[in-house]
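Hey, quick one: can you model this chain's 3D structure?
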Amino acid sequence: MSFSLNRFIQLTKADLTENKVLYLSIVIGSFAVMVIMAVLFNHFDYISSRNDMVLRNFFYSSSFIITMLTICLAFWDIPSKGKLINLVQRPASMLEKFLERIILFVFLFPLIQRVFFLIVEYMRVIFLPRFEGDWFMSIYGRGDGQSLWDFFMDIDTILFPAIMAGWCVISLAVYMAATFGGLKSFVRFMASFAFGLVVFSIFLVLIIENLMDFSADVVISKTSDNSAPALILGGGAIFAATSLAVKSLICRNVNFRFKGVVGFLATIGYLAIMLYVFYVMIALTSMLNIDMAIVIMTIVCCFNSAWLLCGAYINFAHRQLNA
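Sure thing. Here's the predicted structure for all 323 residues.
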């Protein structure tokens, strides 16, 4: 596992040159998606209310799906044996190949999408205003006079925990991309996220109905900042989703009998641990000890991010070695 900056730069140049059609398609497709999003939002019948939270949540959901799809395409070539062999034969270490794709698909392409979005939104304000004096981001739920920081980062007191939670989700997408590759990784990511939401919801209902006198609405109503309890609740879904990566990590990197059974049991065990941690966070939140709950959530998100990224690299490296 060596790294050479000069070799890394040469690898990046070669990758961009060889796959320029694909990468240009991603860039052009990103711009087209942003245009379509702006036009659709501009013509929704229910956007007459400038503080419509449904519209704002739909905007965040759409942005989330676009970003995660981009990240999941990072290792688009590993499912194909021919393309994988071509990737393996490039004069660079496995670490350099892994980092090159991470930089492109996790940082560069999402950044380009955000820039495109800014351009499209400013063009919409100029050429397709919804009302007289239409302002930037108004159709996405930004209120009149609301600062951009308040709109995008309405989490001043928990900015770092929110970033760590977001990075945990990104790490899960990277893991799926490096493990399965292509659109299959996006499908598996969305399935794991759906699994996390279902398990989280069931477990939360059990807590509310059977285990303790707790209501998320009560907790939120007692706090001046609703974003902290909401982030704690969301952490439960993230924890459950990450547990599904345990089985594939074990099955792809160990060689002994019944490794599938061991991987399944390890997944169940890890899920149980994550749910217990979530239970502790909910208990602390119900007692209004939100600061401690946020600390625990942040630590667990950092831990999950670390092992998911390490697991992604290990799966990617072993796939190359076994090509």
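One thing worth noting: The two ends are 17 Å apart (CA to CA).
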